[in-house]
Design brief:
By secondary structure, the chain is of the alpha/beta class. It is 51% helix and 13% strand. It has a six-stranded parallel sheet, sandwiched between helices. Helix 3 (74-84) links the parallel strand 3 and strand 4 (89-94). Helix 6 (139-146) crosses helix 11 (206-215) and helix 8 crosses helix 10 (187-201). The protein is globular, with a radius of gyration of 17 Å.
């Protein structure tokens, strides 16, 4: 039994550099709980391959993609994937020079992001987190982005005590089900609280909410 369930997490790798794809594939394929089901050379190729996979009911659980690619870049690809295949999670690979694209990818529904310098363990952790519908934040990228997020104290003060508790748990990477279990509330109520938090803080994703929680000291930053 894997952490994701009875089968490994299925991953599609998307990068326009063959050596990068092969490198990622090489260290993912030694893991029992992750299965690489394909590669794509750019965003458009990824969209085409997903369409074929969907027709055969063989969609991956997670797409791991580079942000800077020809034809269809990572942020546009992310939006296309999450809108067409809501159950497919996207984890983006980035560098410090691509913060604008990171913001676009987050707005487009990316479940996490990590630097291209990340080691095998970090990449695997990000993939597993995305498959669980959790948030994975590369600490260095998170610190860079939180400096750019406007989070007035009036926004946080508008949250109820329960909403602040939910926000803190979101930032620790817990899924709606895990939050519901911990707070002894229904999963539907949890979803409502998360929606209210995003609305009150004028954010567009759980990932952004997690960064605000870390920035405001509600939870310690990830190591």
């Amino acid at each position: 039994m894997t952490e994701h369930g009875a089968r490994p997490v299925r991953v599609l790798i998307v990068d326009d550099h063959a050596v990068v794809r092969r490198g990622i594939r090489a260290y993912l394929e030694v893991l029992d709980d992750i299965e690489v089901v394909g590669e794509a050379v750019d965003g458009q190729d990824a969209v085409d391959k997903l369409e074929t996979m969907a027709a055969h009911r063989e969609l991956p659980d997670v797409v791991l993609l580079d942000l800077l690619m020809p034809r269809l870049d990572g942020s546009a690809t992310t939006s296309r994937i999450t809108s067409t295949y809501p159950r497919v999670k996207v984890v983006v690979l980035t560098s410090f020079g691509e913060m604008e694209r990171v913001r676009a990818a987050l707005a487009g529904g990316a479940s996490g992001y990590l630097l291209k310098s990340a080691g095998p363990a970090e990449v695997a952790a990000a993939i597993q987190a995305a498959a669980r519908d959790d948030v994975f934040l590369d600490p260095a990228v998170a610190r860079r982005l939180t400096q750019e997020i406007v989070s007035p104290s009036t926004g946080l003060s508008a949250l109820t005590e329960r909403e602040r508790a939910v926000l803190s748990l979101v930032a620790t990477g817990k899924s709606n089900k895990a939050i519901a279990d911990e707070l002894v509330i229904s999963e539907r109520t949890t979803r409502t609280h998360v929606s209210n938090v995003l609305r009150k803080l004028q954010l567009t994703s759980r990932t952004q909410a997690a960064m605000v929680a870390v920035h405001e000291g509600l939870v310690p930053p990830q190591n």
